[in-house]
Amino acid sequence: MPGEFALIDRIRARARSRVDVLLGIGDDAAILRVPAGHDLVVTSDTLVSGVHFPAQTAPTDIGWKALAVNLSDLAAMAATPAWCTLALTLPDADADADWVDAFLDGFLELAERHDVALVGGDTTRGPLSITVTAHGFVPEGQALRRDGAHAGDEVWVTGSIGDAAGALAQWRARGPSSAKLRHRLDRPTPRIAVGLALRGIATAGIDLSDGLAADLGHVLAASSVGARIDLGRLPTSRTLADHFEQAQRWPLQLSGGDDYELCFTAPASAAFAIEQALAACDVTGTVVGQLVAEPGLRFTTPEGEDYVPAAAGFQHFQGVH
Ligand code: ADP
Ligand code: MG
Q1: Hey, what CATH class is 3-139 in?
Q2: How far, in Å, is the centroid of ligand 1 from the Cα of 83?
Q3: Where are the domains of the chain?
Q4: What is the pLDDT of residues 148-172, one digit of tens each?
Q5: Residue among 83, 108, 123 to mutate when testing ligand 1 (max atoms within 8 A of CB)
Q6: Domain 146-307, what fold?
C-alpha cells in the first residue's frame, strides 16, 4: 500500500499547472497570482461517503462531482475558475492507489475542461471524505451575489431540474432506473459559461444544490423580496417526464437537489439579452416566475392553486445498496 507521500506524488505527476501558479504542489503552500483589477472568489465543499454520495459510487464519478459542485458555486458567482485544492481523507485500504487514479480521472477531466490547476491539498487517513476548495476571479465588483434581486425581476432557471433527484428516487426504490437520470446525479455540469455571460445582466444568482425551493429561498432572504413560481413552467427533461408523473415530479424539482443548474433574477427588459447569452452558451433558460415585494415563496399549480413543497429531505445513503 502506498504511503501518503507516494499518493501525493501520484497526484502531483498528473496535475497540470497554469502561468499564474507561481508555486504549486510540493511546498508548504501554493503561491498564486490574482490578475490586476480582479476580485478573488473562493468556495469550499465537502463530500462524505454515505452522506453526499452512495458508498458504491464509482470513484471517477466522485472525482468529477467533487470538483463540479465547487465549480458550480463559482459559476453562481459569475467567476472564472482558476485554481483548486484537494483534501482527501482515505480509509486505510490496499486499493488506495487504484482509487486515487480513478478519482483523478474524473476530477482532472473536469479541471482540464475549465483550465483549473490543482495547486495543493492534504492527504489523511480516515473514513472516505473529500474537500475541494476552488478559486476564481471576477473583474472588481462584478460578482453575481444573492442580495441584488428586486421585486418585479423575473426568476430564471437554466437547463432542466429534477433529474438527479429522480435518479436518487429510482435508486432508493430499487426498481427500474434510467441511465440518463443517473448521469445527471453522478456527473453534474457546472454552468460556468452561463455565469460569465450573466455578468452585468442578472441582478442575483445561486446554484441549485438543495432544490429550487430552498435555494431560491436564500436569494429571497438575502434580497428581502418574495416570489411567485408557476409550477407549469418548471423546465423538465423528457426523460424525467417519461419516468415520473407531474405530481411526483414537483417534489423532485422543488426539494430534491443536486441539479447544479443556475437560478438567477433579472428585470424583464433584460430577457432578450439573456436569451442571446444563453444561446451563445448552448444552454436553455426558462422564466419560472417573478419576484414580488411581499416576503415569502409561493408556488402555483397550472390550475391556479397554491402548492406547498415538502421540506428538503436530508440525504443519507448509509446502509442502502
Ligand atoms: P505539509 O505537511 O507541509 O502540510 P503535506 O505533506 O501535507 O505538507 O503536503 C505536501 C504537498 O503536497 C503540499 O504542497 C500539499 O499542498 C500537497 N498535497 C498534499 N495532499 C494533496 C492532495 N490530496 N492533492 C493535491 N496536493 C496535495
Ligand atoms: Mg498537509
Answers
A1: alpha beta
A2: 15
A3: 3-139, 146-307
A4: 999 999 999 999 999 999 999 999 9
A5: 123
A6: Phosphoribosyl-aminoimidazole Synthetase; Chain A, domain 2 (3.90.650)
